[in-house]
């Protein structure tokens, strides 16, 4: 066990031998830290928080009561292999959040980036890959092998199918069912989820210029309302938007290899 001299650990907390506790970490009463856990500088575990498994937390993460971070993957294929969970800096997990380690078949790692906010009772399953500045609202459910890119907002109670991808700065409305991939800057609502346009509010807040937003809107129409399939339409317009990184980001997302189809305003054109 390695515990910094500046760590503050309540006498009713359980810190197992082998854990690494960084500078200025605070661990509250009845919290549980497993033997393979590494807590970075400034982390705070409130009372009854649980961090177990081969889990690493970066700096200044805050874990609220009854959250369980680093539990075994909820997969029938998991046979007790020593897999891991890696969480970056400045992440907050509110009450009842669960984040699982990876599976051997999925690469053995669940990865969460920096500055993410997980609201109460949200769940990140095994082998997920999450970027930075993501907000998961209350009771959001991510199945295994899901990829969420930077600055995505997931509304309360939405559920994401395994192996799905959600592109950067997309918005998913509350109670939506995400069965297929969501393009960057896309806005999806409903169950089953339907792509309803672009997250213009999010784009504006991110400082994207109005003229650029208009170009992305025009490209969106050409992709999803063109005469060919979505993928053919996307490749056809690529030369016209070579100077617009936001459109190219969408086109690259569409062209990438994927396990799921694309969310669309018209499912038959995927």
Task: Please tell me about this protein's structure.
With 270 residues, the chain is of the alpha/beta class. 15% of the residues lie in helices and 27% in strands. It contains four helices and 29 strands. An eleven-stranded mixed sheet has the order 2-5-8-11-14-17-20-23-26-28-29. The protein has a nine-stranded parallel sheet with strand order 1-4-7-10-13-16-19-22-25, with no helix packed on it. Strands 3-6-9-12-15-18-21-24-27 form a nine-stranded parallel sheet, with no helix packed on it. It is elongated and about 65 Å long. The mean pLDDT is 97.
**What value does the Rg take, in angstroms?**
20 Å
Strand order of the largest sheet: 2-5-8-11-14-17-20-23-26-28-29
- CATH H level of the largest domain: which superfamily? Hexapeptide repeat proteins
Helix content: 10-25%
Which strand-content bin applies to the residues? 25-35%
Main CATH class of the largest domain: Mainly Beta
CATH architecture descriptor name of the largest domain = 3 Solenoid
Major pleated sheet? 11 strands, mixed
Helix and strand content put the structural class at alpha/beta
Report the span from N to C terminus: 53 Å
Could you say how many structural domains there are in total? Answer: 2
Total strands: 29
Overall average pLDDT = 97
């Amino acid at each position: 066990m390695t515990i910094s001299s500046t760590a503050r650990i309540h006498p009713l907390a359980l810190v197992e031998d082998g854990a690494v506790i960084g500078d200025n970490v605070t661990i509250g009463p009845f919290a549980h830290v497993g033997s393979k856990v590494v807590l970075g500088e400034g982390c705070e575990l409130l009372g009854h928080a649980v961090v177990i498994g081969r889990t690493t937390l970066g700096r200044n993460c805050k874990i609220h009561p009854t959250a369980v971070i680093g539990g075994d993957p909820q997969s029938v294929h998991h046979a007790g292999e020593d897999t891991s969970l890696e969480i970056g800096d400045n992440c907050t997990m509110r009450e009842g959040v669960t984040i699982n380690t990876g599976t051997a078949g999925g690469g053995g790692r669940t990865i969460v980036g920096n500055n993410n906010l997980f609201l109460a009772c949200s769940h990140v399953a095994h082998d997920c890959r999450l970027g930075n500045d993501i907000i998961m609202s209350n009771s959001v459910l991510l199945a295994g092998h899901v990829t969420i890119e930077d600055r995505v907002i997931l509304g309360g109670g939405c559920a994401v199918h395994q192996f799905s991808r959600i592109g950067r700065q997309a918005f998913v409305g509350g109670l939506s069912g995400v069965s297929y991939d969501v393009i960057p800057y896309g806005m999806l609502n409903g169950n089953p989820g339907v792509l309803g346009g672009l997250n213009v509010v999010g784009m504006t807040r991110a400082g994207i210029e109005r003229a650029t937003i208009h170009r992305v809107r025009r490209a969106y129409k050409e992709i999803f309302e063109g005469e060919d399939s979505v993928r053919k339409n996307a490749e056809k317009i690529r030369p016209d938007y070579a100077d617009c990184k936001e459109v190219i980001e969408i086109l690259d997302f569409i062209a990438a290899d994927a396990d799921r189809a694309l969310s669309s305003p018209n499912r038959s054109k995927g």
